[in-house]
Each structure stands twice: as C-alpha cells, then as structure tokens.
Specification:
The chain is 29% helix and 27% strand. 36% of the residues are buried. The protein has ten helices and 17 strands.
C-alpha cells in the first residue's frame, strides 16, 4: 500500500515507519510542524528541530521521502482556540483528543491525497465489525492510547493504521534496538501534543496571564489561600494547590468571581460516582447493548458503569470528574464511543 506515516521524532513513530517499510509498503514520512514558535519562543528553544533531525536520519538511512508540513495556522484555529475557550469557561479541555481528530487525522488527511492509509505510532488497534470500525485497546493498559483517539470518525478509522498497536512498549524498544535507530534510547515525550517539554500552565499563562483570587474552604467559607487564576486549577486536583495542612482537593470553581473552592474531606463527603455527558458519538451508530466500562482520563483506570440517556453511573467514586473532559466507553477490549463530560 501507499502509506503516509506521521512521524514525531520519537521511538514509537520511528518503529512504526520501519515496520511498514520492512513489510514492503510504499511509505512517505510526514512531520507536522505545529509548534507555536512566535507565541512560545520566550519559554526556551523549541525542540522541533531536534525531533526533525531524528526523523531525517531514519528516512535517509532507508531512503524514504520526508515532507515537513507547516500547520501552525490550522492548529491554532482549531486546537489552541478550543483549549483557550474551554479554560476561560472554567472547563478542562483535552487538546490531545482534539489534535488527533481535528488535525492529525482531520485537516492533514484532507490536505494530502493519493494515499491508501495514514499511519502513526499510537498504541491502539482498529477492528471492523459488521461494517463499522472500532478502536481496540493495546495489550499494555498503561500505554493504551484509545482514549486519545476516541473522537475519530468512521471515515478516519477506515483509513488509519497503527503498526505498533499490538505490541507492548518493551517490544517496541527491542525493535528500536534491532533497527539501531538513532533515537532508540530517547525518553517518551510527556505533556500536550504541541508543547512537548513546555508545561501546560506556561501555555495558559501565555494567553490568559494571571489574576489573583481567593482559595476558599468549601465547608466553612473561610479564605485559606490565594491563587493566580481559576484557570490553573481543575476539579479533583490535589497537587499544586499550594496549601499546608492537606490533603486539599479542588471541589469547584466560581469563574465569575475567580474563586477556587477546596476541601480537606473531598473524598469523604462528595459522592462522585455520577456524571452527565453530551455529544455522544458511537462507532456503531448507536449505544451498544450490554454492560459498559468507561475511562474518564487517559490511563489504565476503567470503571464499570451504566448509561441511561446522558447520565452515567459509576461503580466507584472518582475524585477527578471534570466538565470538558471526555468519557470514553468500552465493551471488553473494544472502544465503542465517547461523550463530553457536562
């Protein structure tokens, strides 16, 4: 097949590229340049040149063409605008989910033509059942990235390949050693897709600045500290609040008054096993019959749940349910759909 391979300079996408090339496919590597250089240059040197150096070296070695695609404008108008607007509204955005659905497998897919498939180094699998495409979890529950891909459309899923989705991370590292990749010992990247080594709060500070406000104890109404802007805090947050005598949890935010409410006893007196979701999307076209499990964030934690209408009932409490985040639903190993937490 003729395959467009999204490369980042990391080990995962590099191994995916080598696997497809080894299998005899006609591959072209693409590096999406979405770094916001002008806006973030004061934070330090942007690492995209280092990333691109690794990609170039690998492509040169196996004689694969590489194209650098500038998409800063498209990225800003979709993912960055979405992120800023969600934060200003007091919700918790998920830029990575939007980046995958809107940019990597959206605008980029529309921009290029003539390819049978688009591949990436995500830890996920695609399975077709009764004419519908579903995501299937990777074998490593910690590395599984189906959560970040849960908003892909049927058209997008029909065109994607995840060459390492059936592997564990240690197996990918072994392949990197086998291929003697120049980035074989490179650490996994952390953080938001477009920030890399930059911290989320630094990004928010760039666009929203700081606005001092009160931190108030929920039960007593007593001021217990100050913060630099409600947008730096998320419901369920425990670390980074800056208060002694904890543990403290963020329980709610008053965006109009710029007040962050916290509690010492959040886990005891707040029933957090119910949530409402909106904009439900199902890979099979409708909610599947039978029991569901749900992820409320990326990671290995899955709750058994029931979904009636737009109301989700969890089998356990969760202290980090945050409006704006996504609830991603599963049956067995299949990811079957998702909704936005209201």
């Amino acid at each position: 097949m003729k395959i467009a391979v999204l490369t980042s300079g990391g080990v995962d996408s590099s191994v995916a590229l080598r696997l497809l090339h080894e299998q005899g496919h006609q591959v072209t590597a693409f590096y999406l340049k979405i770094w916001l250089e002008d806006e973030l240059q004061f934070l330090g040197d942007c690492p995209w040149e280092e990333d691109l150096g690794y990609v170039r070296a690998i492509c040169t070695e196996i004689n694969v063409p590489l194209e650098v695609v500038p998409m800063q404008k498209e990225y800003f108008e979709t993912v960055v605008d979405y992120t800023i607007n969600e934060v200003k509204s007091g919700r918790t955005p998920n830029p990575d989910i939007m980046c995958n659905s809107m940019v990597k497998f959206g605008l980029f897919l529309n921009k290029i033509g003539g390819f049978d498939k688009i591949a990436s180094g995500h830890y996920a699998q695609v399975e077709e059942i009764d004419g519908h495409f579903y995501l299937k979890m990777a074998p490593d529950p910690i590395k599984d990235q189906t959560y970040f891909l849960a908003r892909l459309s049927q058209n997008q899923l029909s065109k994607v390949l995840f060459p390492i989705g059936h592997l564990n991370k240690n197996e990918v590292r072994e392949l990197a050693e086998k291929y003697d990749l120049p980035n074989k010992n490179r650490k996994d990247s952390q953080g938001i897709c477009f920030l890399g080594k930059f911290k989320y709060n630094d990004f928010i500070r760039t666009y929203l600045g700081e606005r001092q406000g009160d931190i108030v104890e929920e039960e007593s109404g007593k001021k217990v500290g100050e913060h630099q802007g409600f947008w730096y805090h998320t419901v369920g947050q425990r670390k980074g609040i800056g208060l002694s005598g904890g543990p403290w949890f963020v329980v709610r935010k008053d965006c109009e008054k710029n007040i962050v409410y916290v509690s010492n006893h959040y886990h005891e007196n707040k029933a957090r096993n119910q949530l409402e979701v909106g904009d439900l999307q199902w890979f099979g076209g409708q909610q599947p019959k039978g029991p569901l499990r749900v992820k409320l964030r990326h990671g290995e934690t899955l709750y058994n749940c029931t979904l009636e209408g737009n109301k989700v009932q969890l089998d356990q409490d969760d202290q980090g349910i945050a409006a704006g985040q996504f609830a991603v639903f599963y049956q067995g190993e299949l990811c079957v759909g998702s909704g936005v937490i209201l």
